[in-house]
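During the no-cost extension, the postdoctoral fellow (Dr. R.K.) reprocessed legacy sequence entries with the updated structure-token encoder. One reprocessed record is reproduced below for audit purposes.
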Amino acid sequence: MYPKDKKIKAVELWLKYDKCESDVIKELGYPSHKMLARWHEELQRESETGIIQDSFDRYSKYTKQQKEEAIKHYFEYGKRVSRTIRALGYPSRNMLLRWCEEVAPRQRKIKSNAVEYSHDQKVKAVVTVCSGQGNAKEVSETLGTSRATLKKWQRELLGEENSMANSEDSKPILPNDKDQLISEIDTLKRQVRQLRMEKDILEAAAELIKKDQGVDLKKLSNREKTVLIGALKSKYMLKDLFKELFLPKSSYHYQFGVMSSPDKYEQLSIRIVELFEANNSCYGYRRIHKLLASEGRVVSEKIVRRIMKAQELVAIAKRKRKYNSYQGEISPAPDNLVKRDFHSEKPNSKWLTDITEFHIPAGKIYLSPIVDCFDGMLVSWTISTRPDAEMVNSMLDLAADKLSEEERPIVHSDRGSHYRWPGWIERIAGYDLTQSMSKKGCSPDNAACEGLFGRIKNEMFYNRSWKNVSLDSFIDILDRYLYWYNNLRIKMSLNGMSPVNYRLSLGLSP
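Re-encoded structure tokens follow.
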């Protein structure tokens, strides 16, 4: 039951909304459509007579306690009207439903037909009645349904104009009408089969060739269409599939023959997968093609690209915010001598350096390398858990030990604090090197070194799980990768050779 204040609120809102029950129920969530008018009558009667009437008094045959007991039994024992009436001996079915609707609108159990009939059962029943092989009463009793349901099935299958007559003494169906109905039913069956075939084709396209449900079948390749036909030919006739997919019979047999023949690139495909995985899963089709050529395998780049696409061999790139070591202008900044010219005609002429950060669950690791602009070789590198002066100073010491007496390269960096500290400046002067710096906040001035960090992270850091990897283990993995980068990783700009092999091919010392 609803308290009086809620009734008053609902009635006032009902009058405010021009007696629109739907708006009131939508806003308040109660009561039913009929209850609003009833509450309005009660409140109006109370205002006129001054007598407050309990809503239970309307049913003087039953007391308030009896009504509450009936409602409680109904909701506690499965919402079955017949069960409540048998147990209590009252009230009538309609009265109990009305009581329940007053207390809990739209919560009583609505009876539904649990029996579902297949499309074939419906068609058979309609044909039996329309052809005169049986009357509606017999067919409905056999199926356990009603004549109204049979009429509904006929309207769905044949349309309103061919629905069954309402009266028992309707005119019998003439032979011509019978043939027409059977013909229409056959037409409906063909249409249903056509729609099912279209649905199955779209589902197969989504599952087998990874196409969207709304794909245009005309735009599929002949190979893709052949794959779909192969999956559905056991269910549908080939000529129907050819017509639906717009595929000539000759094209199907050609593609089927090609797909049935042994794959001549099977061994090549296996080797491409091996090369891709052996090189940190970071090579594209051009580098894989170069490796195959170095092994004496003559094959087109297009074939390599097609095989890598079929095997889903893709090097995924991901960008992250770089580590920033800038701490202000703590000392005079040298001029930018490189001026974004990252090319060099000989080794140890231009060096680039910077610091990058690797963040894993175990902590942070920092890498500081020196890159030679001649061929991109890493002259030296240091790895540490702290980006301090010792890391960059020891890196410079390792690189300077590899210089001959005549070699005095330019050392270019950004304006990070590590390259402004006295220890770095003293070492630059002590090794007779020339210092160069980028403009403030201008990363393109050191783009070649930034690009190196991007390659390193794309190839060995991103898209990998570093959970349960310790800092020492990661440092070892990174150090081995940098060795591979110098000695084994091929560069297309070096004619498919690694930096070390490129220098050896020129007769230079790596």
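The beta strands are 350-353, 356-360, 363-372, 378-384, 410-413, 434-437. The chain is about 50% helix and 5% strand. The remaining legacy entries will be reprocessed before the final report is submitted.
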